[in-house]
Structures are given as C-alpha cells and as structure tokens.
Amino acid sequence: RPETEQNLEDVSFYSAKFEIEESLPEVFHNAEPETEQNLEDVYFYSAKLEIEERLPEVYHNAEPKTEQSPLEAIGRQMVQKCGGLPLAITVLGGILCEKLTSSEWKRVSEDVDLYLKRGDEKVKQVLDLSYDALPYYLKPCFLYLGCFPEDQEIDTERLYLLWMAEGLISSEEKGRKETLRDVAERYLNELASRCMVQVRKHEYCSSAYNTFKSCRLHDLIRDLCLSKGKEKGFLKLIDQTNYAPIHVASRLAIHCDGAARVDNNYFNKGEETNLRSFLFLCKGWRRRSLVIGSKGSAIDFNKLKRLRILALENGEFILSSEVGNLIHLRYLSLYKSCVEELPLSVFNLPYLQTLDLRTTMQIKVPNVICKMKRLKHLLLKGIQVVGEYGDQLILDGLEESLETLRDESHPSCVRFADIPKLTNLVNLKIEVGSNVELSIIAQRMSCRNTQLRESHLSISNCDFNPERGSNYTNLRKMLMSPSLATLKLNNSTCISLPRYQQWMCANLIDFSLYEGGTIEGDSLMRILGKFPLLKRLSLSQLKFTKAEIRCLATSFPQLKFLNLHCLSNLERWVVDKGAMPNLSRLQISLCERLEMIPHGLRYITSLQELNSVFMPKEFNDRLRVVNGEPREDYRKVCHVPSITLYDDSRMKVVRAPHSFYTECNNDDSNREQDEPRRSEQYERERRVSPPVAESPKM
Q1: Domain end: 113, 131, 149, which one?
Q2: How many angstroms separate the Cα of 288 from the Cα of each of 261, 363, 382?
C-alpha cells in the first residue's frame, strides 16, 4: 500500500491504465465480428466507448481517493490534444509507459505531435486500415478535406456546397423531404462518428437544420488524407513549402500568405487540362491583383474545359471574361476577396449551382443572374448591381431552382417582389428595411405550401404599433412561422410583441432587439421566456416603462447567452429560482442605473462566464473580494468560473479560491491587498481569464 500522497496518485493513474488495457482484448473477443468491416468498426467504437465508460469507474474504485494527480491532469491534456482519436491515444500510451515522472510527462505533452509521429509505423498501419474501412461514398468526401489549410476550422456550409458541386453527394441517398445538403451533413456526421474528422457544433445557434458550425482534421488524419489523395491522383496541394508540378491530380489547392510570390510560372500549365477543382485559398495576401483566366495569366480558363469548382478566396483578383467558357462550372466563389467586377459572361455558365459573392469590397455585378436557370445557392454581400434593369438584383426566372438566398448587404440588394415566386427556397437570410418589404417576407413565410426551413431576418425602420394594424399583423405571421430561426429588430418604433400562443417562435434560437424605443419590460420578458428553443438573447439601447424587469421561474428553458446593453432606466433585475437553467454566459454593459446582480443567479449552476463591462464602480465593487472579505454580491456569483469586471481601459487580475476575476481599474497599488489567500490546489490550477468575446453574429 503506498505511503505517500504522490504514490497514491500514481496508483490511481496506473490502475486505470492497466485495467483499461486488460479489458480491451476481452471487448474485442466478445464482439466476434463476422467480417473484416465489422472487425475494424469494433476496434474504433469499442476502444472509444470502453475508455469513456471505464475511466470514471476505475478512478472511483481506486482507494484512497485523493485530489487529481499531476500525472492524471497531464494525461487528460494529452488525450485532448489527440482529438479523441483512439489510435493516437494508443500510440501515446506506449510512449508514456516508460515515463515515470511528471517532468517526463510534461516534456511529452509539450511536443506530443512529434512523439506521435515517432511511432508513425504503428499509427500509419492502423490509420490506413481506418481509411480502407470507410464506405465507398465517404472516401472522396474525406479526401476533399485535404484541400483546406492545416489547422483551419472548415465552415461546414461551404464544405457541403463543395461536396455537392463535385458530385460527391448522391441524390439516391435522399430520404423523404431531404435535400442534398441534408445528405451532406449526414456524411459529415458519419465521418465524425468514425473519428476521421473533428466537428464543432454551434455554441448558441445550433438548430435541427444546421447542427455543425465547422470541422477540422487532426494532424495525423490530415497526413493520411494528403497521402491518400496524392496516391490516388485525387488532389495536389501547393503551399509555401511545395511548388512541385501537379502531375495527374484532378484537383488543385493553392495555399499562400502575404509573403508568397505568385506569378505566371507558379505551376505547370501543360498539366492543367484535367483539373476539376481549382481552389486558390490565400491568407492575408494583398500584394497585388492577380489576373485569373486569360491567356498568359496565372491560370488559363481556355485549358480548363472540365473545371467544376473555382474558388478564389481571401486575395485580390481580376477575373477574366474567359470565365464564361467554363461551361461545366458548378461552383464559383469570391469569398472574402477583393474583386472589382464580375464579368458579364457569367450568364453563359449553364450548370452553375453556387455563386458566392461575399467579397470584402463592393463588387459590380451585372443584372443577369436571373438567366442562370440551374442556380441553387446565391450568397451576397455589399454588391453593386449594374445594368439597364435598375439597382436591384432580379431573381425572376429562378423560381424552380433557387434553394438558398443569403443576402448580407445593408440594405438588401435584391428585388423583394421576386422572393414570393421562389417556391423551392429552403434557406433565407435577408435584411428588411421598409413596411412594404416586411409585408412581402411575412407573406412568403406564412404560405402553407412553402419549402422554407430556415429564415434569418434583420428588420429595421418599421412601425409595429398595434393600433396601426398591418405591420403588427405581419410580425405575428413571421413569429408563427416554423422556419424563423434568428430575428433582429433594429430601430423600429412601438415594438410590442403579440400575445404568446402555442407554436409561436417554435424554432427561434436567436433574438436581438436594438433601439426599440420605450417597451413594457415585464411583458417582453414574459413572452420571450416562453420561446422553447431560444438560446441567445440580446437587448440593447432600450427604455422600459418601469425600472424593473423579471425573469419568471421556468422561463428561458434553453437560453445560453444573455446580453443586456445600455438599458438606460433599468434599476432592478429579478431572477426567480428556476429561470434560465442552462445559461452559460452573461454580459452586462452600460446599464448605468442597475443597482446589483440579481439574487437568482446563485441558483444558475450552469453559468460559466460573467462579464460586467463599463458598469458603475459601485456595481462592480459589490462583486469583489477585498482583503479576503467578500462584498455584498460575491456569494451570488462565487460559483462562476470566470468573472470579468471592466471599470475602464486598465486591467488587473484578482483571484479567489472558487472563482477568479479579470478587473479593469486605475489603481494598481492595491492589487496585493485585494488578492485573497490562495490554496495550494489553486496555485497548481492557475488560469488566466479570457477577454470579453464579441457577441455571436446572426
């Protein structure tokens, strides 16, 4: 039996390790797979589930139970670095079994990727097996992930559109009422369940239609992806360290930053004719405009007759009119690029499915998009419509094809009269700037036979006075639509939400109210609190009829983020026990009359972050611990892991045993006396509070 605390901790860790290792062979033996496919699946899922299920039990049974050992803490960090990949964890365990001290473990942790690659023979063999075990329809989807830069968070919506344009998503896989996009999301979910890709869900704005926000590849998996892509001629990647010819690859991805020298000799032109995809993904590259498409330029469209995907992103480009010769093009993206003008010849692209014009500067767009009869996904931001048909983009003619319309322009650049005609529209994001536009959108959303599944609306400059009738009725229609996912009301007068009724805002996850004049606060909070899926709420620059608002018990059942900004006459905020049970982040700023934090916050155990930004000094003082003594409101929030107090631009850190503060204060001389005593455990787990993050965008 160990006699020291250190030995007790080591016993706990190694008991867990050995018990897991001994149980895994039994799991594989009992599975009795009948095929090679089953055997490979058993390896992945059994290892993952066994580790997850057995680890807590082993540590619980290890006696005597002590605080988390240093080795256990380091080990868990390394498991996280492995991205949950059982194969990487297996190799890491083989390395660590010969390391007996915490210093050796820390050394491994600091360079865990290098250590994993030293054992690459074992990793490579099993990773090859994991790729071979993929179903035939997932293999090209997996290989396509190699197009993106290392460690990049890949936006899932862009990935789905690329997969669809490449023809990697089979229409035969569609179920009833499913779209190809649904099938693409299902493919990604299957890759994630096989530990081949790491997915990230929307923290505040996930919905049934849009589960994942982004994905990324573990370094070892990305190496596998690139090697398999090169071996099969699927993909050629060119970056700062690799300027080799593309050989026979059918897809070319170029990654470069501001230091890259890109010119006409950047790659071998004689081997371009087989390209199906060309992705030029820059990172802060703004040295000069690169001519794309004409003879003698970096890439000649006349030699790319089979091109299906053209992505020119995060750079400065001049797009040649020869783009109209790419008759097989399915996907054209100028995302976050600087391009002055979209050539008129784009209307010659008969098979174009996706057009992404979300550029960083205003781009001139000819009013001919309505002639692209197969266009399914149109993404816009800050475009200038040019041509003889006026300054609004005509969509008449896309009735049977367009499924996605996302216009992030301020104000919107599309002709609203065409929107009700888009009978196959599934996803809509648009800014409404007048009463007429509001009426059109309300009509579209309330149509019974609509295919619309997600609506993201920003409404400005509308009068919602119930006594004036029409706009108030239109607001009710939109709130009753099951497609409404996010709603922002900005600079609109006489806002009074309709009385709550069943199915109102059934799928609303994000609501923002800005500059709404004078509002009855209790009524507003009572109605909003009944929305069943609301996860993010922002109230800004409002004036309430009374100086108090109240969150009733059981209200806001799914709310995770709450932002209260510049509520000029708010003096008291009451939170009943049971309200906001899932709140994880609270931000209060410039509410100058608010006296104190509500007492009910002490019951919200899910709260992880509290930010008090530019609040009165008296308000922040009530949350502090001074000379080891907690002030009046400290007990209400002592369970919150991260509290950030901003009095002005200078910042100091004050830590407490159960939580810590990041404070902004002019007086640095009192730092030492304001700091409470720290326990030895806290010193080992010392952390730094993150700065206040920007509010999630709609």
Answers
A1: 131
A2: 10, 17, 22
Amino acid letter for position 238: I
Tally of domains within the chain: 2
Query: Are residues 119 and 147 both part of a single domain?
Result: no
Report if residue 355 sits inside a domain.
no
* Containing structural domain, residue 180: 136-218
Mind listing the pLDDT tens digit for each residue in 156-177? 999 999 999 999 998 888 888 7
Task: Let me know if 630 is exposed, middle or buried by CB neighbors in 10 A (0-12, 13-18, 19+).
Answer: middle
Query: Which letter, b or e, does each residue of 119-131 get, where b requires 16 or more Cβ atoms within 10 Å of its Cβ?
Result: eeeebbebbeebb
Co-location of 30 and 68 in the same domain: yes
User: Between helices 180-193 and 156-166, what is the axis angle to 10°?
Assistant: 110
List, as one string, the DSSP characters of 349-411.
Answer: -TT--EEEEEEEEEEEEETTGGG-TT--EEEEEEEEEESTT-SSB--TT-TTT--EEEE--SS
pLDDT greater than 50 at residue 680: no
413/686 Cα distance (integer angstroms): 51
Query: DSSP letters along 501-541, please?
Result: -TTTTTT--EEEEES--EE-HHHHHHHHTT-TT--EEEEES
Q: What is the CATH number of the domain that holds 161?
A: 1.10.10
H or E stretch at 31: helix 5-31
Mapped onto helix, strand or coil, the DSSP state of residue 591 is: coil
Extract the tokens encoding 664.
Answer: 């902004």
Give whole-number Cα distances, 98 to 14, 108, 508, 619, in Å: 12, 11, 54, 54
User: To which residue do tokens 């009013």 refer?
Assistant: 367
Domain match, 84 and 150 both: no
Q: Which among 263, 216, 279, 275 has a CA at the least distance from the CA of 84?
A: 216
* d(C-alpha 195, C-alpha 44), whole Å: 8
Q: Is 195 helix (H, G, I), strand (E, B) or coil?
A: coil
pTM score: 0.78
71 and 124 belong to one structural domain: yes
pLDDT greater at residue 518 or residue 681: 518
pLDDT band, very low/low/confident/very high, at 36 (cuts 50, 70, 90): very low
Say if 91 falls within a structural domain: yes
| Gap between the Cα atoms of 156 and 186, Å rounded | 12
Do 126 and 13 belong to one domain?
Answer: yes
Helix (H, G, I), strand (E, B) or coil at 155: strand
- Taking the C-alpha atoms of residue 496 and residue 485, their distance in angstroms, rounded to an integer, is 20
Q: How far is CA 20 from CA 38, 161, 542, 579, in A?
A: 22, 42, 57, 41
- Residue 58 in any domain: the answer is yes
pLDDT of residue 68: 60
Which of these three, 165, 186, 218, is where a domain ends?
218
User: Any idea what DSSP says for residue 153?
Assistant: -
For residue 163, the tally of other CB atoms under 10 A from its CB is 21
- Other beta carbons within 10 Å of 685: 11
Q: pLDDT (tens digit, 9 = 90+) per residue, 327-340?
A: 999 999 999 999 99
351 lies in some domain: no
Q: Please check whether residues 97 and 174 belong to one and the same domain.
A: no
Asked if the model's pLDDT at residue 597 lies above 90, the reply is: yes
Which tens digits make up the pLDDT trace of 39-70? 344 444 444 444 444 444 434 444 444 456 77
**How far is Cα 127 from Cα 528, in angstroms, rounded to an integer?**
49
**Do 190 and 141 lie in a common domain?**
yes
Q: Please, how many CA atoms are within 13 Å of residue 8, restricted to the half-sphere of its CB? A: 11
Could you tell me if 24 and 125 lie in one domain? yes
